[in-house]
């Protein structure tokens, strides 16, 4: 239950991304700078945190042990997550990006078979492929249905081009983010805390953001002061606070696929925070009719996930029993 509350709090700060990205797009800012500046601004803040906690050496040693894994999974978890989202925001409406992003609550659950868990048996430790938690998947689909209801009226007016550029990049991001996050948890094996892991992943992707920035400078010129300011706010709220909170929550339940699915499902509440933010900051209309029904469905789904997470936490885990092997000699 505590991890779900942390996830919801993270979603509130994550919502800043969608609101300000839309704001920057409306003011003429380029998606290239929106994506690259966020992560470049994150580096000094995370470095100060890690230095203050006196564990920078540990991070660098861990990265040196598995450099290709750090670069590869960080690229998937951060670059293939955020660049497509900002690109989609530039060519599709903000509500479409925020709604499509909710596919990640289902994507994370479907990725379970790509991971293994260690099981202690009489013959030693063996690796078992993790299974899809179908109960958690069913609840996540209920939440996704609520998201569809919220966006239904707006979707009636969307063009095919907006649908293409506003959906496909975000679908890629929806799978990349939980995959990169989970794989990096696997690589770290509990040896790094959340701040260290976020700093390491951000540091590993800096070359990619620098290359993108050079491309942006050549293509669209330098970013405006307004875009720099808003990107800094996104970096602090979404990149530092939200990412850290979300990674803390997923770290705590990384060994249990059902609970992990529940925590990842909290990202659905971003839609609710985006609605509130756009009403207050961008003068968007208040939700009515079927949109209110969608909000109720999302809330119900989150409550079900909360009860499910609480129920599996009190059930003893049944481990498979493997008989001892007989050796003749």
Automatic annotation (TrEMBL):
Keywords, alphabetical: Membrane, Transmembrane, Transmembrane helix
Transmembrane portions of the chain: 31-50, 70-89, 95-116, 132-152, 158-177, 198-218, 230-249, 288-308
One Pfam family of this chain: EmrE
Keyword set includes Transmembrane: yes
Protein name: Multidrug resistance efflux transporter family protein
Organism whose genome encodes this protein: Robertmurraya mangrovi
């Amino acid at each position: 239950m505590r991890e779900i509350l942390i996830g919801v709090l993270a979603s509130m700060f994550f919502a800043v991304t969608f609101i300000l990205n839309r704001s920057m797009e409306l003011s003429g800012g380029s998606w290239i700078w929106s994506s690259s500046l966020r992560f470049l601004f994150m580096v000094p803040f995370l470095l100060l945190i890690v230095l203050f906690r006196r564990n920078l050496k540990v991070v660098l040693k861990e990265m040196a042990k598995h450099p290709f894994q750090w670069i590869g999974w960080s690229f998937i978890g951060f670059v293939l997550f955020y660049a497509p989202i900002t690109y989609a925001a530039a060519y599709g409406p903000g509500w479409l990006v925020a709604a499509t992003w909710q596919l990640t609550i289902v994507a994370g659950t479907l990725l379970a078979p790509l991971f293994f868990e260690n099981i202690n048996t009489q013959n030693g430790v063996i690796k078992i492929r993790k299974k899809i938690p179908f109960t958690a998947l069913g609840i996540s689909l209920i939440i996704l249905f609520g998201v569809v209801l919220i966006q239904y009226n707006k979707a009636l007016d969307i063009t095919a081009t907006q649908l293409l550029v506003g959906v496909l990049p975000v679908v890629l991001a929806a799978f990349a983010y939980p995959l990169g996050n989970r794989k990096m948890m696997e690589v770290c094996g509990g040896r790094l805390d959340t701040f260290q892991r976020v700093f390491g992943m951000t540091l590993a992707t800096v070359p990619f953001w620098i290359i993108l920035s050079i491309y942006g400078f050549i293509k669209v010129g330098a970013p405006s002061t307004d875009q720099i300011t808003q990107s800094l706010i996104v970096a602090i709220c979404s990149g530092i606070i939200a990412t850290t909170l979300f990674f803390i929550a997923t770290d705590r339940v990384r060994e249990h696929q059902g609970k992990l699915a529940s925590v990842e499902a909290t990202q659905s509440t971003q839609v609710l925070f985006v609605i509130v933010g756009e009403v207050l900051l961008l003068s968007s209309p208040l939700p009515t009719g079927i949109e209110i029904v969608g909000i109720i469905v999302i809330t119900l789904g989150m409550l079900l996930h909360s009860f499910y997470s609480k129920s599996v936490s009190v059930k003893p885990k049944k481990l498979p029993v493997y008989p001892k092997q007989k050796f003749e000699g």
